[in-house]
Structures are given as structure tokens and as C-alpha cells.
Design a protein that fits this description.
disordered C terminus, globular, 4-stranded antiparallel sheet, Immunoglobulin-like, 4 domains, 25 strands
């Protein structure tokens, strides 16, 4: 009887393992869903034309993948189906994602630096149809779930492997990264930006947080190792949180990547914020200074010929529209700018926070105009902000400045955005105002919510610790959680709970309040390796 009982137990465990592995096998329908997730999350860094192309209506099975179909990456079978119920092999999945990665290289707003890592799989020869796609996939980290030695391209792809491939591409193309390449002797640092170029020479590095050294012109740095022949490198930048560490072993070639997080301003200490909420009236001395300055401006304006005076702002808004105007006396130009705050978005002449007065130049052909992108609360320049004008992209320099060419009096559609800020979209008449065009972007903070459940039976997991960026909370009895004050963008979501394996996922958190962040935790069984084998970070 004992032998029969043991045999039954073994068959039971084997059956459960086979059922789990069968459930984790990936079909083409799952592959399409993962590719759609990648494109949806990367939408903020894709060119507008590419993002719009992916939204073209198509077969529901491949909805959201119209751009890949147009480029011939995905295609129907001769019978008109998408083969969605068939299982996907590792080789097929990597082939499709390899082609997708090649397409995304030219589809993002800022062309990425693609890192290529030579693979040494014994079953993938140089003549193999998959060989050419592997170096760039390895450079993104998409092959980290496949063990070295043999790739087994004909094996059925598992769900965890599929998720790892998609998340690696999202993390690489959608994030600001530091990449440290060590060849066993020399080390070199590369900086990859998602929406703007990052200057690697602005970074400094340290092995002990005490002595910091500047990165060389070409990104070179000098490794240091302790008695155990190990080195731990940290990186620092004024605009980013401290990054690292990356572990190095002496004489052992390696490559390490770190996702960067910006240092966002503390707006509670902003002089603009403080002034706005300061109920203390101005002193008489301050009032006299303001009156004197306004009198100087008025006298200067009246001394000019009528043709050179800025025209008054015309108000054609309907009843109830609010248009406010104030003089900006802080600029260095002799001509004062009239700041306008238009609450009527249909205005063609101006948008929120623009500096505006009449442009009288009548030069023929295109004229170069200057602009500046600043923070709406602190008025600080937004370095690297992206401005799109009539399908042409411009990037703000270190002082938030950019320039563009347009025919005088032509109407141009302008979009400005930067990480962690609301996008600004206005219609602007070129030459309508003299001086630089100032675009003010408003920083945003959002709330996000979701639920943590068990992978096995979908039961809520209470008291689980959920971390998003530098914010954390615990789930309630129904497994739900909510976090406030999160900046939109890419974040690592980490969940920890007793008796469960920890879970990590890179996800894009947008401004959509309806977005749900649902995480599923796998229980930690000591008598079965099923979950440990199939789970991938």
C-alpha cells in the first residue's frame, strides 16, 4: 500500500507540473498581445506618425499592430487567418521581436544607441536564419531568460520568457540608461537617452561614495578593485538620482545597464510657489519700486514711433472667456513682452504662458525664430525638451532654447513636451510676436491604483508591500492599493509579500486615472520547483 501511495503522489506532482507547463506555453495570440503591449507602452517615445499608424483599424486579433503589418513583419496565412491558436517556438518569437526591434530603431523620436552583444549558442550557427537578430536582442537584455550554451530555437516559448523579451525592449528603448562596458582591462560608459541625447561627460563615478572622478571625454573610466578582485561602481549627475552600483570582476569582461531616474524639483520650496501662497502684503518700498519701473516702461513706449509700439491684445473671445495680460519686465530686451494667459484654447494667436507682441518684419521666405521651454512653476529652463513644429522635431539646449524656420505670418502647429510634464499643444502664427517664444510646461503628479492577487487562485494578497519609484504602500484586505504623487513615465513596480515570490515589472504609468496596475504573485513552495523554474524577473 505504501508503494502505491508514493507512486500516486509522484504521478500527481508530475501531472500538476505538466498542466502548469502546458498553461504557460505561448500561442501566437499571446505573442500578438505582448507586441501590442510593447508598442502601447513605448508610444510616448515613438514618432507621432508611427503611433498613429499602429492605431489603424485592422483584424481584432492583431489590433494595434497595423504598423508591423504594413512593414511586412506580420502577415496572414494563405487561408486568411493569423494562426493565433498555434504554439510559438523560441526561434519564431525571437525572429518576430528581432524584426520589430529593427523597425523601432527608426520609429522612435530620438534614435537609440543600439548595443550589440555577440552570442555563442552552440545550436545557432552564423548561417542560421536567426543569427543576425540575436546580437541586438542580447544588447537590450531580451535573451537574459535563456541559458548560455544552447538556445533550443524549436522549443515552445514559455510565458515568462515572452514577458521578459517584451519588458527588456520596453526598458531599453523607453528609458534613460547608463551602459558600462568592461573588456577585462578598460571600462567605458555610454549614456542612452529615450527622448534626448545624454552627455556622458556630465557624469562622475566613484568606488566608495567618497572620492568622485569625472568621466572622460569618450566615456572612459579607470576601474578599481578590492582585495577580492571585485569593484562596485557608482555614478552621479546633478539632474539624476545616484545610479548603481555595477559590479565588476577583475579581468572578466562584462556589460552592465542601469535605468536612470531624474531628480525632480521640490515645488513646495519653489520661490514661485511660496510667493503665490504668501499672504504678506508687499512693503511700501517694494510698491514704490514697481511703480517706478512701470513708469520707465511707459515712458520708453511713448517715446517710440507709433509703428514700433506693440499693439494691444485683441479680445474676440465670447462672453465668459477669460483672457489676462500682464507686463513682463524681467527680460533683458528693451521692448517689454506682454505675457498672455489664454483660457480659450481656440485662440490662434497664443497659448498658455507665451510671450507675445507684434512682429513687424516682412522679410520674404523663411525666417528663423527663437523659442524657450521653461517650467511653469519655477521658470527654470527645461533642458532636452522636445518641440515638434509642422512635423519637424527640435530639442531644447542646456538653456531650454530652440530655433525653427517658418515663413512670416504662416500658421504652424506646435507641440512641446518633456518627461514629467503636461504636453503643450498650440497653434502659433510665425512672426506674430517679437523676441523668443516662451513655452511653459506644467509638471504633473498622478495617482495610481491596482490590486495584488495570487497566481494560483486569484485570491487577494493582503499586506503586500508595493513600491513604485521612491514611493511605497501596503495592500488592504482585498489586495488593493493606491499611491499618490507619482510622476508619469516608466517605473519599476516591485511587490513583496510573505510566502510569495517577489515580483518586478517595468511599466509605463500614464495620466489615465482608469489605468489599473494588477500584479500576480507566485506562491513559494519548498517541495516543488515548478514556480521557481517558470518565474523570471
Amino acid at each position: 500500500m505504501l508503494a502505491v501511495f508514493v507512486l500516486a503522489l509522484l504521478l500527481g506532482f508530475s501531472g500538476g507540473r505538466n498542466e502548469t507547463q502546458y498553461r504557460d506555453r505561448v500561442r501566437f495570440s499571446d505573442l500578438y498581445l505582448e507586441m501590442r503591449r510593447v508598442l502601447r507602452i513605448l508610444e510616448p517615445v515613438l514618432k507621432p506618425s508611427v503611433a498613429a499608424e499602429n492605431k489603424i483599424d485592422t483584424d481584432p486579433v492583431v489590433q494595434g499592430l497595423a504598423g508591423l503589418i504594413t512593414r511586412g513583419i506580420l502577415s496572414q496565412l494563405p487561408d486568411g487567418s493569423w494562426n493565433e491558436e498555434a504554439f510559438v517556438t523560441r526561434g519564431e518569437a525571437l525572429f518576430y521581436f528581432g524584426q520589430m526591434l529593427q523597425s523601432l530603431e527608426s520609429s522612435v523620436v530620438f534614435p537609440p544607441m543600439m548595443l550589440e552583444i555577440t552570442t555563442d549558442y552552440a545550436d545557432i550557427f552564423s548561417e542560421h536564419w536567426l543569427y543576425g537578430f540575436l546580437p541586438k536582442l542580447a544588447g537590450t537584455g531580451a535573451l537574459s531568460s535563456f541559458k548560455a550554451g544552447r538556445l533550443n530555437p524549436d522549443a515552445i516559448l514559455q510565458a515568462a520568457e515572452l514577458r521578459n523579451i517584451g519588458s527588456a525592449i520596453i526598458d531599453y528603448l523607453g528609458s534613460n540608461l547608463l551602459i558600462l562596458k568592461y573588456d577585462g582591462n578598460d571600462a567605458r560608459l555610454y549614456a542612452k537617452g529615450a527622448l534626448q541625447e545624454l552627455n556622458v561627460t556630465e557624469w562622475s563615478y566613484s568606488f566608495n561614495r567618497r572620492d568622485w572622478y569625472q568621466i572622460g571625454k569618450d566615456g572612459e573610466l579607470l576601474p578599481e578593485f578590492n582585495a577580492g578582485r571585485l569593484g562596485s561602481v557608482l555614478f552621479k549627475h546633478p539632474s539624476y538620482r545616484e545610479a548603481g552600483p555595477i559590479m565588476l570582476k577583475e579581468k572578466i569582461a562584462s556589460i552592465g545597464m542601469i535605468k536612470l531616474q531624474r531628480n525632480y524639483a521640490d515645488f513646495n520650496s519653489s520661490r514661485v510657489f511660496t510667493k503665490k501662497n504668501d499672504s504678506t502684503p508687499d512693503s511700501e518700498e517694494e510698491r514704490a519700486r514697481i511703480r517706478s519701473r512701470l513708469a520707465q516702461i511707459r515712458e520708453r513706449l511713448e517715446s517710440r514711433p507709433a509703428a514700433d509700439r506693440p499693439k494691444a491684445i485683441e479680445r474676440h473671445a465670447a462672453a465668459g472667456d477669460n483672457v489676462a495680460a500682464t507686463l513682463d519686465v524681467s527680460g533683458g530686451s528693451d521692448r517689454p513682452a506682454i505675457k498672455t494667459a489664454y483660457l480659450n484654447e481656440n485662440s490662434v494667436a497664443a497659448g498658455p504662458g507665451e510671450e507675445t507682441y507684434e512682429q513687424h518684419s516682412r522679410a520674404e521666405g523663411s525666417v528663423t525664430y527663437e523659442g524657450r521651454v521653461v517650467d511653469a512653476l519655477s521658470s527654470e529652463a527645461l533642458k532636452g525638451a522636445v518641440v515638434i513644429i509642422s512635423a519637424r522635431q527640435y530639442t531644447a539646449d542646456d538653456h531650454g532654447k530652440f530655433s525653427f524656420a517658418a515663413a512670416p505670418n504662416s500658421i504652424v502647429d506646435l507641440t512641446a513636451y518633456s518627461e514629467g510634464y503636461e504636453a503643450l499643444k498650440i497653434r502659433h502664427r510665425a512672426g506674430y510676436r517679437a523676441g523668443p517664444l516662451t513655452l511653459t510646461l506644467k509638471p504633473v503628479f498622478i495617482s495610481c491604483a491596482g490590486q495584488v492577487t495570487s497566481f494560483v487562485d486569484d485570491r487577494p494578497v493582503a499586506r503586500a508591500l508595493v513600491k513604485i519609484g521612491n514611493r511605497a504602500t501596503r495592500t488592504s484586505s482585498d489586495g488593493r492599493f493606491a499611491l499618490k504623487g507619482v510622476k508619469p513615465g516608466f517605473h519599476q513596480i516591485s511587490v513583496f509579500a510573505r510566502d510569495y515570490m517577489e515580483a518586478h515589472e517595468i511599466s509605463h504609468i500614464g495620466a489615465d486615472t482608469a489605468q489599473e496596475i494588477n500584479m500576480r504573485l507566485r506562491p513559494m513552495y519548498s517541495d516543488s520547483a515548478v514556480f521557481a523554474d517558470s518565474y523570471q524577473n
